[in-house]
Amino acid sequence: YSKKLMFLGPKKTDAMIKRYLEFYAKKKTVSPQAISSLSYVFSIYKLTEERAAEIFCEICLSMPEKVASAGKLLFFGQHILKSPEAKAKLQPVLDLLASSYSDEGVISGAEIVAKSQLAMGEAAYRAAVAASGKDQASLTIGWEVLGLDEETATKIFGEVAGGGFITQVQAKYAAKQQKYDSKGSKVHEDGKLENPEEDGDEEDDDSMPSASGNVQECTECGYTLFVAEGRDFKFFNAGFSCPECGAAKDKFKSVEM
Q1: How far is CA 74 from the centre of its chain?
Q2: Using CA atoms in the order 143, 148, 152, 156, what is the torsion angle rounded to 10 degrees?
Q3: What confidence score (pLDDT) does residue 105 get?
Q4: CB under 8 Å to 94, separation ≥6 — which residues?
Q5: Dihedral of the CA atoms 158, 164, 168, 169 (nearest 10)?
Q6: CB-facing half-sphere around the CA of 171: CA atoms within 13 A
Q7: Residue 134 DSSP class
Q8: What percent of the chain is helix, strand and coil (3-state, nearest 5)?
Q9: Is the alpha carbon torsion for 80, 58, 25, 154 positive or negative?
Q10: Torsion over CA: 224, 113, 72, 162 (sign)
Q11: Cβ proximity of 70 and 49 under 8 Å
C-alpha cells in the first residue's frame, strides 16, 4: 500500500486524502474510534502535522456552505494534531465557522463555535459510554481523545449510568410520543386537549412559540442547529429538513451544551 502511494506521487496523494476527508466528514459520526482511525490514515499517508492542517483548511475553505462538515473536520483536526504550530494553521477554519453565525451582541460567532466543539465532544463521549453497556466498572475509555477532562467525563458517565446506559436512539423510541394539535397544544391519544383551558388562547401561533433554547445535531451528516429560545416553533417545526443533507427533523438529536 505504501509503495502504491509513492507511485501516485504527492499531488495525487493529496487528492486522495481530500476526497477521503470529505467523505469522512459527511458520513462518520464523531467518536474516539473515528479520531483514532483518521489519525492512523494520516500516518499511512506519511503527512506531517503542518501539511495535514493545511489540507483540513483547504477542504473546509473549498466548501464554505457546508458548515457541519467544516465543524466536524475542525474537531478532528484539533484532536489529532498535537503541535501548536499545526493547530495554529486551523485558524482559517475557526474564522470561517465563526463568520457563519450572526453576531447579535448576545454571543459571538467564535463563542458559538467553541460551545459547538465542546458539545460535540461531550455528545460523542455520552454515546460511547452508552454503547459500551452496563458491564462497566470504571470510566469508558476515549474521554481524553475527545478533549474532555476527567471531571466532565465522570459527570457524563454518571448521568448515562443513572439512565441505565440507554442510547439516545433507544430513549427516543422507548418514550411515548407526545401529540399536539394544529395550535401546538398537547392532546391525548383520542385528540382531546390535555389542558382544556388552553383552548381559549387566541394568540397567533407565531407570537407564542414553544421555548427551548437548545442545540440540535443531524445524525446523518453532523449539521448543528442552534435554536434560539422561543423560535423553535418557527425555525424547527415538523416540516424542517437539514440544509446540509436534506434529512428530516426526526433525524436530529438534542445535544447538551
Answers
A1: 11
A2: -40
A3: 63
A4: 74, 110, 113
A5: 160
A6: 12
A7: S
A8: 55, 10, 40
A9: positive
A10: negative
A11: no
Q: Model pTM?
A: 0.65
Q: What is the pLDDT of residues 32-74, one digit of tens each?
A: 999 999 999 888 888 899 999 999 999 999 988 888 899 999 9
In the chain the first and final C-alpha atoms are separated, in Å, by 42
**Number of neighbours of residue 54 by Cβ within 10 angstroms:** 17
By C-alpha distance, which of 255, 231, 242, 225 is closest to 101? 225
Q: What is the largest CA-CA distance in the chain?
A: 75
Measure the CA–CA gap between 57 and 73, rounded to whole angstroms: 9
Assess contact for 112 and 101: CB atoms under 8 A: yes
Distance CA(63)–CA(90), nearest Å, equals 15
If phi > 0 it is left, if psi is from -120 to 50 it is alpha, else beta; for residue 147 that is left
